[in-house]
Amino acid sequence: MRIERFTKATAVATVLALAACGGGGNETASSGGGSSGGSSGVSGGGSALVDLGLSPQANADAGSSYTNAAPDIRISYYFLPHPPAGVGSLRDAVAYLDADGDGDTDVFMATGDYLLIGETGSFLTFNTGADIFAWQTATPQAFGGALPPAEHARKSITADFNSDGLADIFVFDHGFDAPPFPGAAPKLILQTAPGTFSWTRMPDVGFHHGGAAADIDHDGDIDIFVGGSDPFFYVNDGAAGFTKATNRFDGSMGKVFSAELIDVDQDGFVDLLLGAHERDGDRTAIYWGSSTGAYSVASRTLIPAAAPYGAVLDFDAEDLDGDGDRDLVLNRTRDGDDGPGLGFYMGRTVQVLLNSGNRQFSDVTATHVDKPTGEPGFGGTDWFPWLRVQDIDADGDLDLFPDNLASGTSAEATGLVYRNDGSGHFTLEWVDVGLR
Ligand SMILES: [Ca+2]
Ligand SMILES: [Ca+2]
Ligand SMILES: [Ca+2]
Ligand SMILES: [Ca+2]
């Protein structure tokens, strides 16, 4: 199978601001990009929020699922070795981790099938050392003899949830993807010793489409945001015992299909980036972390809508233009049906916003990002589950590229790279790497 190898992104330096913004500021909208001025689609009110009186952290992103989602390899999901039977066909919920303690990057995939009633097995593929991946017959034993189940897994994340130094996995599974959307349970998969895992279903069933993990309450363990029709936090007790909490964010957030936890403004408090379907009135926004340890609509920055690509699939926040602050990249697809070939979850765009300070961002997509007119197959239906922001050409700046090296069903995603010129201008290049 084909693999690309490169160095991990270097995180921008963390700068601590002495004065923590504890919320209460007016909502600010970033400029440009044709933000729709319609109703917010969110309702007021919400549960009483905690005020934990936190101090800023030197590195609020330490151990977060976002930090762990920049592996040193890029692979084809579809060419991964997997068990001969029993696993599903879905390939969105990928996780990268050292799953056997040998220091290289292994790949976990939670699966399921589209419109499946029931569950399939997930799989774990081991890097044998030279970036050659192999299914190992011992893998079911790695999971105690039973592969972690999935109905329609949408996102897997890695973090050390039980604070033992080994990477664990959490799977967001939204279940059957049609009315009445009965939902599914998230799966917690703990690496109890190198190469040995134990998994459990979490008790809260729902349409869990996305989420992220970071230490939101500064007590040294990694907490989880669970996005869906009814989002909530799992607050960690330090040993991967989780308590469902709804008092850590404002109830006006509405539904959430995509989420990341990143300290975007580098003030020592991790921020919550949320998106769903803009066509339905869902606002794409950054909810600013603060000393309270809670997130509120009263302290958020809106990200301009990007119709017709109103379904936000993925967020990244890295320094794209080399000025030391974190800029934004959003991976999007269509959030409604605009006709034949232009349907729901068809096509894609990459939205880029540069940080202009004071929690404001300028949408430079129109001027800084190549239009994909020269891309073979453009106008087709592909969308990227995940976009990565790393220096793929080793020239010192951060480039944009789909995580998957090939879609398996189309050549569109194959070898696609938005190459940075160092100033945050991206040139689209399509490299035929021969995967079909
Ligand atoms: Ca915590
Ligand atoms: Ca922050
Ligand atoms: Ca920047
Ligand atoms: Ca580069």
Walk me through the structure.
InterPro entries: FG-GAP (IPR013517), Integrin_alpha_N (IPR028994). This is VCBS repeat-containing protein. Keywords: Signal. By secondary structure, the chain is mainly β. The protein folds into 2 domains: 259 residues, Neuraminidase (6 Propeller); 113 residues, no CATH class. It has 2 helices and 29 strands. Strands 2-21-20-19-18 form a 5-stranded mixed sheet, with no helix packed on it. A 4-stranded antiparallel sheet has the order 4-5-7-8, with no helix packed on it. The chain has a 4-stranded antiparallel sheet with strand order 10-11-12-13, with no helix packed on it. The N and C termini lie close together (11 Å). The site of one calcium ion has 6 residues, from loops. One calcium ion binds next to loops.
Keywords:
about 425 residues; 2 domains; FG-GAP; Neuraminidase; globular; five-stranded mixed beta sheet; binds calcium ion; signal; Integrin_alpha_N; mainly beta; four-stranded antiparallel beta sheet
SSE arrangement:
Elements: E1 4-5, E2 28-29, E3 73-74, E4 93-97, E5 106-110, E6 120-121, E7 123-127, E8 133-134, H1 139-142, E9 149-150, E10 153-159, E11 168-173, E12 187-193, E13 196-201, E14 210-214, E15 223-227, E16 232-236, E17 242-245, E18 258-262, E19 271-275, E20 285-287, E21 300-302, E22 311-318, E23 327-333, E24 349-357, E25 360-363, H2 365-368, E26 387-390, E27 399-402, E28 416-420, E29 426-430
Parallel strand pairs: 2-21
Antiparallel strand pairs: 1-3, 4-5, 5-7, 6-9, 7-8, 10-11, 11-12, 12-13, 14-15, 15-16, 16-17, 18-19, 19-20, 20-21, 22-23, 23-24, 24-25, 26-27, 28-29
Bound molecules: calcium ion (4 copies).
